[in-house]
Write a structure and sequence with these properties.
Strand order of the largest sheet: 1-2-4-3
Order of helices and strands: HHEEHHEEHHHHHH
Low-confidence stretches: 68-73, 286-291
Shape: elongated
Number of helices: 10
Oligomer: single chain
Structural class: alpha+beta
Mean pLDDT: 75
Number of strands: 4
Radius of gyration: 63 Å
Length: 308
């Protein structure tokens, strides 16, 4: 092992001291030299000896042998879980004043301020969590029940402090639903709304069809005739026969007044007399062949022959 600087300096100082001591005592110089050499050799031998460190003391713990049927298992460290409290069927408001949600969850909390003097921290945690849930559900529509539950579970699962900073709360197993009565009422309202929409649509289609017939089809007798021909192609003669009818329809559709009716032909006094006579002959009880008189009466008379 190499000598360090301090050891060399100490050895040189010892040799110089012995030499000076020999000179003071009047001893020969070789004696001082020999003593110094011997002293240096002893120092070198002592310095080169290895340091013997004491062996470490090992303490063997007593070994307990488990029964043959039990295997030794390394156990994970045990952590204390935060306290919890379950709440169920708490009514919370929705965006519609006529409907309320039913809220259930498991509330977890942990103490923030050491030495808190509150007597019931679980009530503080539940109140803080319900205030958070109430603020969230107040803006949610009751028709989106499943979507609202997932959103509420995601937001309430994040720990948050209460207003006074005493506890940090979060929730698991969040459930948000509508009561059965409200759910059925909502289904009835939805059915009525769909029925109303269908009725309004049918009514609008009917108005559009009436406007189409009045403003386009029956705008004039000509447009009515063209419309009839389009729906009955090739029946030109029939269209000609219906011209008067189509004209009347066009007049009614545009003026809301019936067209003047053609006067029926009036019977003259002679025609009335002939009709009364024919009726009397037809109902005479004593005639065997009343038809012969009627035929003779209404038979065409031969044209008068020209006399020379």
């Amino acid at each position: 092992m190499k000598l360090d600087k301090n050891t060399l300096l100490l050895s040189a100082a010892v040799v110089a001291f012995l030499y000076l001591l020999a000179l003071v005592l009047g001893l020969p110089g070789w004696v001082a030299v020999m003593v110094s050499v011997v002293l240096l050799a002893v120092v070198a031998v002592l310095y080169n000896e290895p340091d013997v460190k004491p062996a470490p003391i090992t303490v063997t713990a007593p070994v307990t042998h488990a029964p043959p049927s039990v295997h030794s298992v390394d156990h994970d460290p045990v952590f204390s879980l935060p306290p919890t409290r379950t709440i169920a069927d708490v009514r919370l408001p929705s965006a519609s004043p006529d409907f309320q949600f039913s809220f259930s969850a498991v509330v977890h909390w942990s103490t923030v301020l050491s030495g808190s003097r509150h007597a019931d921290l679980s009530s503080v945690a539940v109140d803080a969590l319900l205030n958070r849930a109430k603020a969230l559900t107040a803006g949610q529509q009751p028709t989106e029940e499943s979507l609202n539950q997932h959103r509420l579970a995601a937001l309430l699962g994040e720990p948050d402090l209460d207003d006074r900073g005493q506890v940090r709360t979060w929730a698991t197993e969040v459930r948000l639903r509508l009561p059965d009565a409200d759910s059925k009422h909502l289904q009835v309202l939805a059915a009525l709304h769909r029925r109303e929409q269908r009725t309004l649509l049918e009514r609008r289609m009917e108005r559009d069809e009436r406007a189409y017939l009045r403003d386009e089809v029956l705008a004039s007798p000509g447009s009515a005739a063209v419309w009839w021909l389009v729906n009955n192609p090739g029946e030109v003669e029939k269209a000609v026969e219906l011209l008067e009818t189509l004209a009347q329809l066009s007049s009614v559709a545009n003026t809301d007044e019936l067209p003047p009716q053609r006067p029926k032909p009036h019977l003259t006094a002679a025609d009335k007399t002939i009709a009364e006579l024919a009726t009397a002959l037809n109902h005479h009880p004593e005639e065997d062949h009343p038809a012969n008189y009627r035929e003779q009466f209404f038979a065409e008379k031969p044209p008068p022959s020209d006399q020379p």
